Every structure is written in C-alpha cells, then in structure tokens.
Amino acid sequence: MAALTMTRPTVDREHAVRWLRSNAVWVAIVLVVVVDAFVINNFFSVSNLRVQLYAVTPTFVVALGMAVVIGTKGIDLSVGAVIALAAAIVPIALSHHLAIILLLLLVLVGGAVSGTVVGSMVAIARVQPIIASLSIMIGLRGLAVIMNGSADKSVTDPFITGFGGGLWLGQPRMAYVAVVLALIVAFLVRRTTFGRSLTAIGDNREAAQLAGLPVRRVLILVYVLCGVLAAIAGVMITGNQGQATPSAAGMSFELFAITAVVVGGTPLEGGEVRIFGTAAGAVLMQLITASLTQEQVQSDYLLIVQGAIVLLAVYATMKRKLR
Amino acid sequence: MSVPTTVRPATELAEEGSGRRERLTATIQQLGGVGMLVIVVVVASAVSHDKFGFATKGNFETIVSGSAFTGLLALGMTFVIISGGIDLSVGSVFALGGVLAARGAQHGTWTAILYPLVFCAFFGLVQGVVIARFRMPPFIVTLAGLSIARGLEQVVTKDGNTTYQIKPGSVFLTFGGGTWRAIAIFVVAFALGALLLQATRFGQALFAIGGNENAALLMGVPIARTKVLVYVLSATLAGAGGALNASRSLAGPVTVGTGFELTAIAATVIGGTLLAGGAGSVSGTAAGVLLLAVISNLIGRYLSDYGSAASDAVNGGFLALVIVLQAYLTRVQRIQQ
C-alpha cells in the first residue's frame, strides 16, 4: 500500500478518499463499537442488542423508504405524519373489531394514499418534493389527531403489541420484519426495472423522460413505497408503546430518517440508493445516542451532535462537481 | 404520457398564449393571497353572528397582535425563499431567541436585547457561510440547524429545566406587551422589509440569485455575500420574534417554536412567493400570515374541540392546493417567457 502511494500518489489518494467516502459509516461504527465496549456495561450482551434493536428498528424502516425517495432526488418530510396516521387508525380499527389482516391493510392503504398524494404533487404537478411533503406533513398530523380524538388510546391487542414489543429467539420481532423489508426493498432497487428507473430519474429526470421511462408512474410508486414503510413503522411504534399517540408519535422521524440515509452515504443529489449503508447509518446514530445517554450526556448535546453529524455526512457525500 | 411536453415549438406556444393570459396568471400569483384574505374575512364577517363575535374590533386586534411575532419568521422566510433557499431552523431559533432574551433580562434591558439578536445573527451567519461557501443544500443545513439551535436552547435552559422569568418592572417587558405595540411592530417590520426588498441593491440581488444564480454571477451580483446576509437576516428576525414573544409572555418559554418554520413557509408561499425563488413580495407574505391567523381564529371559534389539530389539517390542505396551483401558474409563465 505504501509503495503504491509513492509511485502513483494522486490516483491512489483519490481512490482512498472515494473508498472512505462510501464506507465512512462502517469505519465510524467500528470506532463507536470499540468505544462503547469500554463505556457501556455489558455492551456485547443479548439484552443490550435487544435494547438497541428496539430503538433502531422503526427509524430504519422509515429510512428505507426515505433512501428510495432520496434516490430519485426527492425528499419526504411527511413520514412522521404517516406514523401518526397509522397510530390513529390502529385503535379505531380495533374498536370496530376488524380482523387483524384488514387492520393492517387499512393502515398500509393509509400510508399508500398519503404517498400517492405527495407523489402526484411531485410527479404530475412538479412541485418540489420538500414543499409537497411539507404540506402533507402539516395537514396529515392534524387529521390524525382529529381522527383519534383528544385522549390517547391504549392498544392491548396481542397481535399489535406482539408486533411492536414481542420477541423471537430473544430479539425483537419487529427487527426480523425490518430485515425482510430491507431485503425486499434491496431487491426492488437492484434487480427490477422499477429500481433501475428510479435511480435513472434521480440522475437526470429529463433524460429519463426522453428515454421513454414512465417517470410519473415510477415517482408516484416511490412515494407510495415510502408511505407504506412509514405506516408499518407506525404500527411498530404503536405496538411497542401499547398506546396510540397521534399527537406525538413519529415526531421528528423525518429528521432521523434523513440522517440515517445521508450518514449511510447516499448522496442527496439522487441517482443512488444504499440500503445497507442506510442500515449502517441508522445503527450508527443509535449507537452514538446510546453511548451519549449512557455517559449521562444531556439530550441537549445529543441534538447538537446529531446536527453536526448530518452536516458532515452530507458534505462528505456531495458529488465532486458541486463542491 | 410518454411524449414530453417541452418539445412543442416555443413560437407556437407564444402565439397561443396571449399576453392577457400571462398577465392574468401573474396577477393571480401576486394578489392571490391578498384576495383570499379579503374574501375569507368578508365571508366570515357576513356569516358569523354577534354571538361568535368574529367581526369585532377586539377580535381583529387579537388576530393581528397574536400573529405579529411569528409573522417575523415569515418575513425572514420570504427573503430566503426569494433567494432560492429555505430556512427550516427558524422555529428553533425563535425558541433560542426567547430563552436568551429572558436570560439577558436578568442582567438588564440592553443584555435582553443584545443576547438574542447577536447570538441568533451569529447562528444565521454560520448557516449562511456553510450554504454559500460549501455549497451545501439549504434545506439540509437548516434542518441540522433546527436540531442544533434546539440543542443550544436546551443548553441555556439546563436541559429545559430552567425557565427564566423576567422580573416584573423590567423595561424589557414593555417591548412585546400590549396589543397596539405588537401591531405597530408588525406593520413597521413588514414596511421596512418591503423597502429592503424593493428599493435596495440587496433586495434586487435576492431576486437575481433566486431567478437564475448563474446569470446573477455573470452580472456581477455578489452571490456568496448576499446568501450569507439573507440567512443572517432570517435568523435575526427569528431571534427578535422569540425575544418579543418572551417579553410578551413574561418569561423565556422552553417548548415554544416547534413547527413554526412550517407555518412561516406556508404563509410565505400562500402569499405568492415562488418556492423556486426569484419572485415574491413582502405584502403577499403579510396577507399570508394574516390569512393563516384568521383561519385558525375561525377554527378556534367553530371547531374548538379540535383546536390546533384542525387548523393544522386545514392549513396543510390549503398549502397543498396553493402550491399545486402555483406550480401550474408558473409553468404557464415559464413556457410563455
């Protein structure tokens, strides 16, 4: 390695920088794990793994959808509100004694409808994604709170609480679900026409249009996918808390999800979706949160650290021509 | 839908779209917010009977004075959006300004004024430099800023456990108190804002940058300096709004400001400022601020069971309609130009 650096310094340095840029998150995880191994008692234990997985899974599921949206050069700020919507639908469906499969379907349809609205605004009306999803973010949470009524409702249905709080083989059930979802999304992105189209749109929408890709349909589907994933995360959160709180559920999740995606190395300029990088980004942010709270660092510094990490990550993943 | 809409020859479109239609869309764009405000107020006044008391002097005073300080966020947002950017941090900076003012008021009136203004201006400066010099997307920088400003506010308040009360008798309390003083601040701030936007080099530079940054660069507009200044302005206005709010509420409220950036953006956009940048007006934003305030006032009267949730739902839906309409209107204009 050293010899190579001396003979062809420029090329190798560029190579190293590029490698570091796309894999910085893994390096950071290793560093944090090494630190945590010392500062957190029983860091390498099944119970700690369980704690971390409970905390990271809903964020990761939301971030999966966000990664796909960001791949199209978009952004979806409405995911937190979709979580609130899911939290509002669950107790209403339960109070009507709906079969659990219908309940889940209803929640997913809720997320899909929200995604369709945002997607149509982006794809057909050509509104900027940030503002399209912002309007839905404001409106949808208001709607969810109205649907739920003033009081938070407790959710005791065994399936829902099991989905969010239950264990399989000593680990959270929802973590397994998230892994399956990640594999599905990874398959969609890498192995299907849909996946190819969405990254093509992210690279250059006009070119994709001229190449004859169904730009509108793909874009709408991308936002639908994001909405559905956020709705699933909403069921997880509701089940985990055993309570539906549309006024607070999913608050700031758009920020957490975007953070996970950009920390995972996905550029905001679109054209690239990194599923496993996103998983790593979500895990890294959770580990940092865990180690800071473990060290009794107050939540104020946590917010500052998170903000700084987002900035660094975005700067690092920015494409060269933009710098 | 595989045929792209842009392949039609420009000449054909220019002939087809007459000047009248172009002017009409431009008028709707500019005066839509004011028109909506007038319509809503007139209809609500006509419909509401005395028992609801919408069309009373007292209620109008409440509406204007109640939205005066948060209106400053929308004023700053107008400048930022015209320059083609966005500032998501204003809600947190509003809270930070309030807490700093209340803390400063422990030492005297001058510190109560200077703490929030200087610190928030510095916060805006950092955001502006990161956006202008490192060319990072404004929304992600200010999204991180939202988080960081909230964290700083928590640091000042010892993790939200300290609420600084302003001593009763303090001169600082006179700034934000009272109905008419708030209304005067609202009017003066927006008048100065309109002047800054329309009659200064800075204002024209904002339009130029938002319209076409590369063209502005070639014209010799100082891009980086203008961009940095606009974020300084936005953060300073947000800090001032928070400080005034603290003065009005006799303390530095810790949990205030969440989601205020959304209302500010909504008011700006409803007022006819283009999200793509390059077009907008301060008077439109004033109308947007008042329109949202009127709507939430009406909802408070008729749908009081749901309170802010109902206004959020209405505001969100309204914003969605306006931006879709705006997208179509601007497309008509773009094609015709």
Describe the overall structure.
The complex is a heterodimer of chains A (323) and B (337). Chain A is mainly α and 323 residues long. Chain A is 76% helix and 2% strand. Chain A has 14 helices and four strands. Chain A has helices at residues 2-7, 9-39, 46-71, 79-95, 100-123, 129-148, 158-165, 173-191, 193-203, 205-210, 215-241, 253-263, 275-294, 299-317, and strands at residues 153-154, 167-168, 171-172, 243-244. In chain A, the strands form two sheets. Chain A has a two-stranded antiparallel ribbon with strand order 1-4. In chain A, strands 2-3 form a two-stranded antiparallel sheet. In chain A, helix 4 crosses helix 11 (215-241), helix 8 (173-191) packs across helix 9 (193-203) and helix 9 (193-203) packs across helix 11 (215-241). The longest helix of chain A is centred in the first third of the chain and has 31 residues, at 9-39. Chain A is globular. Chain B is an all-alpha fold and 337 residues long. Chain B has helices at 10-16, 19-47, 57-82, 90-104, 109-133, 138-156, 173-176, 179-199, 201-211, 213-219, 223-249, 260-270, 282-302, 308-336. In chain B, helix 3 crosses helix 12 (260-270). The longest helix of chain B is centred in the N-terminal third of the chain and has 29 residues, at 19-47. Chain B starts with 9 loop residues before the first helix and ends with a helix. The interface between A and B is large, with 51 and 53 residues.
